[in-house]
Amino acid sequence: MLTVIMFLPLIAVLICALLPKSAEGFAKWVALFIAALNVVLAFFLVATYSFGGGMQFEQLVEWIPQIGMNYHVGVDGLSLPLVVLTTVLTFLAVLGSWNIKVKPKFYFAMLMLLSVGMIGVFMALDFILFYVFWELVLVPMYFLINQWGGARRQYAAIKFFLYTFFGSVFMLVAIIALYLVTGTFDIIALQNMDLPSFVPYGFQWWVFAALCLGFAIKVPIWPFHTWLPDAHVEAPTAGSVLLAGILLKMGTYGFLRIAIPILPEAFEWFQPILAVLAVISIVYGAAVAFAQTDVKKLVAYSSVSHMGFAMLGIASGTAIGFAAAMAVNISHGLTTGLLFFLVGMIYDRTHTREISKLGGVAAQMPIYAAIFTLASFASMGLPLLSGFIGEFLSIVGAWEGFAAFDMQWLVVVAAIGILLGGAYMLWLIQRMIFGDPSEAVEGQSDMDLREILVVAPLIVAVVAFGVYWAFLLNYIDPAARTLARLIGG
Fold first, then answer.
1. Above 70 in pLDDT, residue 489?
2. Contacts of residue 186, Cβ cutoff 8 Å, sequence gap at least 6
3. How confident is the model over 354-368, as a mean pLDDT?
């Protein structure tokens, strides 16, 4: 089942590539059908998943036995929610790109190829397989930004590629180093080896540092974040949605799946550093978002702040913190994906993202204004919406975990980031939604049925997870507790 879900989008890639130019408009229907089928299969996984059952739906096949390389895939409470989120956002990205006219065959082929890489990262349990999918993601995202982005798309695409590839090189060095010491690429086997008992601490430290660099750039946490605003601003709407909604989660997932459980002793040394960088990301991202005049750039910097809360939970080293990181991952994917869709919709109408030119939306587009306000409230972390879960649990987990190294004051500083987050989103709502319609907004039509269908699933999920946390935490919590036990927590 996992192999089918992972590689099904490749069928869409091949069909789109083989379509004649006279039928290139058919590419979106192919992509939509395959993406919808993948959503159905992903929800089948959810329906048949056993709570607390550890790694499930595993498939292990020898790939290159001479060096112990296997095709090994599986999902648990850390990966299953991200697989489902990936399939849903990919489907919505295809639906949201319905009006693409420039090179549609290539465009939808790249969206589907991106889906293969993202799903593969979350399912892979072999280091080489993980690395192959990790690198695969770079190629379609580079082309999506470079071919369908904004005015500075080439600069943004190259910057995205070089930054993330730079981190990947260090990650590859760490993978090879671990293999030379242990003789295996199997991630689960490495977790169960108790490396600290036979591997020198200095070796663990350098391997963790290399992995940490690769994952931190992808998250991204300060000071490795500078590629993100450029990539977001220049990417097409679907690219921004998948970049914020899924690609950033690959970094936090890497910490939870690989770096922490395999190298727990080194993680203890890095904990205070990760905690400080997480808090800087939270406050810095929120403060810089306040200064933005471009609504898309504001949402991009808000991602730096929100992913800081995921890293805060990870740095806590507690089961609550790990669950918080996953809750932030899912909620941020939903809310920021929703916001980027909405920004794309207003840009298609007004051809501007300048906040000062988008005033009075409520008077002209009431449905849009209501949905945008709801998405903004969810991004703030308002109770009864999904954003509250992760922020609340990350604060609780950090307070518990940071007591071990007398740095609970960091939690207080992180709380300032929550205040700033509410302030810049309220400031955005005030300037963009209320008042008299600006020249650009005047006469614009409200959301049509297709646009409402694109955002409706995200709205439902944002409200459902905010009201009933247990639905999400039932999947996450057992895996978070298992991870905490692996590092002695």
1. no
2. 68, 70, 72, 125, 126, 127
3. 88
What is residue 289's predicted lDDT score, i.e. its pLDDT?
Answer: 87
Tens of pLDDT, residues 158-197? 887 888 888 888 899 999 998 888 888 888 888 888 777 7
- How many Cβ atoms are within 10 Å of 328's Cβ, its own excluded? 29
Q: What is the pLDDT of residues 203-228, one digit of tens each?
A: 889 999 999 998 998 888 888 888 78
Other beta carbons within 10 Å of 39: 19
394: Cα separation from own chain's centroid: 17
Residues 94, 108 contacting (CB under 8 angstroms): yes
Distance CA 393, CA 403 (A): 16
Alpha carbon distance 142, 408 (integer Å): 40
Q: What sign does the dihedral 179-185-187-193 (CA atoms) show?
A: negative
The CA dihedral of 240, 242, 247, 249, to the nearest 10 degrees, is 110
Q: Left if phi > 0, otherwise alpha if psi is -120 to 50, otherwise beta: which for 24?
A: alpha
User: 2-51, pLDDT tens digit by residue?
Assistant: 999 999 999 999 998 888 887 878 888 999 999 999 999 999 999 999 88
As given in the structure block, the two tokens for residue 117 are 């890489």
pTM recorded for the entire structure: 0.92
Percent of the chain with pLDDT over 70: 100
